[in-house]
Amino acid sequence: MADELSLLPEHDWPVLQPFWEAANRGELVFPRCKHCGTWHWYPTYMCRECEGELEWVSVAPHGTLYSWVVVRRALVAEYREKVPYIVALLEIDDAPGVRFVLNTTDMSCEKKLYIGAKMQIVFERLSDAINMPRCLLAEPI
Ligand SMILES: [Zn+2]
Predict the structure, then answer these.
(1) Ligand 1 centroid distance, CA of 136 (Å)
(2) Does the predicted model carry a pTM greater than 0.85?
(3) What is the pLDDT of residues 86-116, one digit of tens each?
(4) Distance of CA 93 from the midpoint of ligand 1 (Å)
(5) What ranges do the domains of the chain cover?
(6) I want to staple 52 with a disulfide (CB 3.0 to 4.6 A). Which of 31, 35, 70, 71 is the partner?
(7) Which CATH architecture has domain 10-137?
(8) 16 C-alpha vs ligand 1 centroid, how far in Å?
(9) CA distances from 66 to 27, 56, 63, 75, 77 (A)
(10) What is the pLDDT of residues 41-69, one digit of tens each?
(11) Among candidates 32, 36, 12, 106, which has minimal Cα distance to 68?
């Protein structure tokens, strides 16, 4: 049976490697076109707007809640001990157009979430190579 770490993303896939390297330093980065300035997520090899070269740019770890779901039943056995948890879709404040999926196991915010809530992105060390971004509600209600 696979453990939770076997379900983690491939951190050494070249397209995503800069993301995971930055996350390992506790830094959040997203690709932006050097030519037209369009932000991208999910990463690709070139700008989808103008085929320009992309560069990875550091952004503040803040986002705005676009949507979320509470997962109460594990879809894979490895997550049976993790439920419930919240999967959130954030718009990254410093990277217009980027919507980023991440989760939190802090269920204390469940009843306080609303579309437009300000969220803080933090990192949780899961392995030597994976420092996983997580989100927390940033504003008290
Ligand atoms: Zn472009």
Answers:
(1) 32
(2) yes
(3) 999 999 999 999 999 999 878 888 889 999 9
(4) 19
(5) 10-137
(6) 35
(7) Beta Barrel (2.40)
(8) 18
(9) 22, 23, 9, 23, 28
(10) 988 899 999 999 999 999 999 999 999 99
(11) 106
